[in-house]
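Supplementary Note 3. Input sequence used for the single-chain structure prediction.
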Amino acid sequence: MYEDMRLRAYPDGQASRFFYFGPLPDHPEMAFMQRYLRPGDGFIDCGANEGVYTLLAAKLVGSAGEVHAFEAVPLFITRLRANIRANHLTMVTVHPDAVGAEPGRMPFVIRGVGSRIQTREDLTSTANTVDVNIVRLDDVLPDRSWAMGKLDIEGAEHQALTGAEKLLARGEPAVLMLELVDRFLIRFGSTVTQVREWLADHGYEFVCYEPGPNRLVTVSDSFVPTPNVLVVSRERRAEVDARLHGAL
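The predicted structure, written as discrete structure tokens, is reproduced below.
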């Protein structure tokens, strides 16, 4: 994968995506990363799973960059670390934690790629749970510039953003890639509209990336591209556009 990287294939894992969908299975998002990220950049991967995005980011930021990968599911942590070792990715730091609004320890529901912090609707479920550490991004990330962050944490995205309020106030990271699904967010007391309004209040705007013309397009207030969205710091929008066109 990604020309010279290796991803261990499991029957229930993510490698099948490369067989079915090609070298960039999430094409718009991954094409954006390839054109935007630079050697030495910082990348945050929340909900890293086996490391599909972590590995791509590591390849792009290189040995001078930093990738911080957060994953709470024990099986995925083991696979993530194995894939990092197989590719000798010394720039990657693994955090075996979930990301939220407040630090602590919480039950975590184990449901494969749908694993998440336990909510009220899970209390009557027969799914397995494990206790995991919850961390705030403001508390655990190094003090540096962050080019990009990814949050795919099954509805807890708003909570994780709340735990990164100091970072966001500085326009860090410049770009966020979020999975936003109303029925997932509602479990945690939020909605896509509320997340968008909260991010707007914190200096970020929703955009669509068009790989063909290689451009970001600001989306109207009446349209939210879901489930996967890109959000850009308004103060750093010119920097992001310049990178896409090779000016930086």
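The chain has a mean pLDDT of 94. The CA atoms of residues 134 and 153 lie 12 Å apart.
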